[in-house]
UniProtKB/TrEMBL annotation:
This is AEC family transporter. Gene3D superfamilies: 1.20.1530.20. InterPro entries: Mem_transp_PIN-like, Na+/solute_symporter_sf. Signal peptide: none annotated. It is found in: Cell membrane. The keyword Transport applies. It is a multi-pass membrane protein.
Amino acid sequence: MQGVLLALWPIFALIVSGFVLQKLRLFGAEFWVGAEKLNYFFLFPALLISSLTLAPFFSPDLPQMALLIVLSIAVAWAVLQLLRKRYSWPATRFGVLAQGALRFNTYLGLAVVAAMFGKDGLALAAIILAIKVPILNLLSVWALAAGKEVRIQQLLLPVLKNPLILACVVGIALNLSEVGLPLGSDRFLSMLGAASLPLGLLCVGAALQPAYLLGERHALLLNSAGKLLLLPCLVGLLAWLLQLPALAGALVVIFFALPTAPSAYILARQMGGDSQLMAGIITMQTLLAALSLPLVLMLLPS
């Protein structure tokens, strides 16, 4: 337990620091907008390219990992569809709750993996991102457009323009083509990537909106419990049934135990979803993850 807490507290300390810095207004609002864009469009893609170029795509565990990820998403999506029909959720609400249940905070996830499993863990984690990010982005847009007439271009465009997905494509291409990162480009991307996670965690803290926790507390708590506790338990059970090796299974469980992505708020607002509920879910899950993530990590098989 001590090792888990020692690995996690600096990560959550960065999130708290970002929140405090934003509240103290030492930097203007424009700073945080610019920092988030810098990270999202430049630093974080560099980290993904660097990690995926070295990722073990010919590992015998990869097909089982991919099956576990797709199966877990499919089960969660099916449950969400049943709940949507049971409670007659409109798209504005269903899309927000679906994002809360399925999407994940990539900065927090990679920071946890780097602290717990080092470079080997990061290489496998990048593969998980390459599988999960396109699927969940597509499902998020689909959920927010539920019941509306939507052209295929409207579903695919946000996915195809996503810089994280484009970075995954580049990293995979460099890996499979065996071009790699020649002429010192590996060090260049590593330097950029090293700046990505601390800055990303500070931005996560700066984006927290505690005022929205006073809204639909029942919905916030149920969505958070499902995302942070029930879903990781389901994924852990499926990993055990599929007999996935300990490291691969642990990494997949971690990425299903993360709080939802801060960018879910932007997508909800752009597509007419309940952005206040989305802000509350993001804030609630991020705060509760400080308690749930250590618990999940301690229950993982070593």
